[in-house]
Amino acid sequence: MASDFVLVALALGFAASIGAHYTGACMGMPHALRVVSSRRALLLMAPLAFLGAALGSGAVERRVGQGLVLHQLTVSDEILILALAFALTTFYNRVRVPTSTIQLLFFSLVGVALGSGAGIRWGTILSLIVLWVVAPIAALVLGFSLTRGLDRLRYLLRTSRLASRAEPVWRVGGLTLLVIGLAASFAMGANDVSNATGALVGARVASPGVAGVIGGFGLAAGVIIWGRPLLARVAFDIVRVDRSMAVAAQLVQAAVVLAAVSLGYFTSLNQALVGAMAGAGLARGRETVQGQVLRGILRGWLLGPTSGLALGFGLSSFLLLGPHLVAP
């Protein structure tokens, strides 16, 4: 059917936008420390994002496709949700503001479900909202603490008999950071591809496995073609980082996201990383944090969900009432 084709095309486009959006969250810290160039970072990230989507996204695909509303959405509803989330993500990518594609999709879905009368599983939605508020704050605190701890460790290494081995250990830390970034790329594919392709599962257009493969191609294409601006934004514009700060931020991001997943939830990679980076910067003094940039990101976190909810509800209500408005 034509509507199924439109839904698949939108899912691919949205997956590409998501792939571009999360380059900084996955590979920003290794790139900030010059462990890897921007070109190589993107070439390494793309296949791992595809593998994560193709091999590890099945359960999340089912949850996003079928576990958030009380009644099955129509294909037209799913098309509206994807189109809206796709448009908003592309807009925020264009203005180089890291937002959360999870939150853009979910609040677009909530708005459309409210406007169409599909019903919402409010317990799940409220639990996610609480998590999304707490996660960046926890990342900030942990980023601050871990940066201070790593600074203390480096000082002890330099003033002890192991001083001659301190710098080689720190160079190994850079390679470890690259490995963490690659693992985050795989995790991003598994966790975030459902934002684009969960609609295919919900509309019974594709199975979870096929949806993951379709979305994986989109993620990889977005990383390669459009990922560089967000990679640079997260790597260089928010906080001036050194090795201790970068290692702390990337480790905290991984810990916060994995903790959420272990509890059966999922959170924003960008928000976890930006919170950790802000905490790491505060550990070195307020002048280290680029306050104007950080305030712009916070505004994006507020405007993104609000715009998705309002536009989803408004467009869905209008489309639902449209036939009645033109009826004789």
Give me a quick take on this structure:
This protein has 328 residues and is mainly alpha-helical. 83% of the residues lie in helices and 0% in strands. The chain has one domain.
Give the topology:
Elements: H1 2-21, H2 23-32, H3 38-56, H4 58-66, H5 75-94, H6 101-116, H7 122-159, H8 163-202, H9 208-226, H10 228-237, H11 243-262, H12 269-283, H13 291-326
Descriptive overview:
- This protein is an all-alpha fold and 328 residues long.
- It has one domain.
- 83% of the residues lie in helices and 0% in strands.
- It contains 13 helices and no strands.
- The chain has helices at residues 2-21, 23-32, 38-56, 58-66, 75-94, 101-116, 122-159, 163-202, 208-226, 228-237, 243-262, 269-283, 291-326.
- The longest helix is centred in the middle third of the chain and has 40 residues, at 163-202.
- The chain is globular, with a radius of gyration of 20 Å.
